Amino acid sequence: MPKVTWVLGNGKEITAEVPVGHNMMEAAVTNNVPDVIGECGGCLSCATCHVFVDPAWFAKTGGPSEMESDMLEITLVDRQPTSRLSCQITSVPELDGLVLKVPQL
Amino acid sequence: MPDPIIIVGAGQAGAALAARLRSLGYDGPLVILGDEVHPPYQRPPLSKKYMSGELDIPRLLIRPASWYGEQNIELRLSTAVTEISPREHRVTLADGSRLSYAKLALTTGAHPRRLPAGMGGDLAGVFTIRNLADVDALAPVLDPGKNLLVVGGGYIGLEAAAVAASKGLKVILIEMAPRILQRVACALTADYFRRQHGRHGVAIRESAALLELPGKDGRLTGALMQDGSVIEADLAVIGIGIAPNVDLAERAGLAVENGILVDGSCRATAADIYAAGDCANFPWRGTRTRLESVQNAIEQAEHAAAAMLGANKDYDPTPWFWSDQYDVKLQIAGLCRGYDDAVPRPGRREGSQSIWYFAGERLLAVDAMNDALAYALGKKIIEAGRSIPKAVAADPAADLKRWAV
Predict the structure, then answer these.
(1) Residues B95, B175 share a domain
(2) Distance, in angstroms, between A75 CA and closest chain B CA?
(3) Of the candidates A92, A13, A11, A17, which has an alpha carbon nearest to the alpha carbon of residue A57?
(4) Is residue B321 one of the residues assigned to a domain?
(5) What stretches of B96-201 show up as alpha helix (H) in DSSP?
């Protein structure tokens, strides 16, 4: 199962296995990662699951879709070049080792 | 041991309230009482990804079942509360046992309005959509080719029609009002969705007054309309709105009027009792308001949690909503209540559009259809308490970002 690490605003790290097919927002909520909220349940309506993908991983996660990019306009912390809504990143074997930085709210 | 904080209602609001109490540092005893068998779960996917089999129950849960124990929260399921005694600070459960509370939060939610039994509302084949159990009953009988009658042209009725049509059922939707979405959106938004449904073969009849649902041997056979016409149907989904669950509060002597009346700090009219979510009616911008949304369930519950721990600030949300029908994502920022003008704005893509609601020159709300940018920028502007000129809203070439910063 792919392992994913969330790096929190205070530098603390949370690492967890994420079943293939699950998305990184639900994985974060399941693993008590603070500040990844997922208010809309992952349907691209709320922008509360914003993360910064570690630049080394951005080629593998890819960038946001057009709709996702629009939603990144209303994140609580301003978007950066590797910003994604984590509900739109699905766990696949190629993402084993993925590192996501959680914006500090 | 001190008496616990007790939360009555294990839905989105109840779960959010408990989580916020813990994250704000409350480490005393905390009990959630829920009358369903499942831990708190998300409702919006019920009629979509859950019904289609894409999500199973564990993935529907707001928090994993193990989370409550880890947080030292006592989650008691299949546990109905029958009475609240505000003076004694005590609740009575269905099994007759009693629990004392230090503080009590009512997150009891709402229930779908049903048609009265005299109109055929109790017939087999008649469904509502609100709980997991509702969808578990409905999903297995949504067979292609069947005739489905949807009663009510609000968002729930329209979403049900979309799901059923996509599954190959023949769908007729009837709405008593002159048009669909009459209560919640302007005619332009209604037109947009009427077209979508037409494209997918859903027949929509507006100004259509239902007389009764006739049945045979206790099973639905169709609809008899007031104009004498008959609609044949194997199944019916009733989507005529929800009513707040206020029964407990009312019997406890709390003030109730379209919801449990609370103040800006979510306090009900008895000491140490709070309410939040679909069941709560709060003062907002000078008007009593009850919101039916996930956003409000979460944010008001979090506000109530803070108030229970001593915060003293009025709840002042920027409401937002969403609805998914076919390949259209509708996102709504703000509340269009009291609008006197609705300005359409074409989006950048085929089929994308937004509607900007104004009261005088003040922007109230935005309906965005497949136009997340309009939603996002509209939400920013409304949240900041600002507005934009109508001419800017109407001009697709005008850069909204300038107004949102």
Answers:
(1) no
(2) 9
(3) A92
(4) no
(5) 132-138, 155-166, 187-199
* Residue ending a domain, choose from B185, B204, B238: B238
CATH number for the domain including A68?
3.10.20.30
Chain B CB within 8 Å of residue A19 CB: no
B130 CB-near residues (< 8 Å, 6+ apart) = B43, B110, B111, B112, B242
Residue B366 to residue B355: CA distance in whole angstroms: 6
- Across the interface, which of B322, B324, B376 has its CB nearest the CB of A74? B376
Nearest CB to A41; choose among B44, B372, B377: B44
Provide the domain count of chain B. 3
Q: Look up the domain containing B292 and give its range.
A: 5-111+243-308
Number of A to B CB contacts under 8 A, please give it: 55
Is some CB atom of chain B closer than 8 A to the CB atom of A73? yes
pLDDT tens sequence across A65-102: 988 999 998 888 899 999 999 999 999 999 999 999 99
Domain extent, residue A85, equals 3-101
State pTM to two decimals. 0.94
Rg (CA), chain B: 22
Cβ of A60 under 8 Å from any chain B Cβ?
no
User: Which of B253, B278, B308 is at the close of a domain?
Assistant: B308
pLDDT digits (tens, 9 = 90+) for B105-147: 999 999 999 999 999 999 999 999 999 999 999 999 999 999 9
Side chain identity, residue B249: A
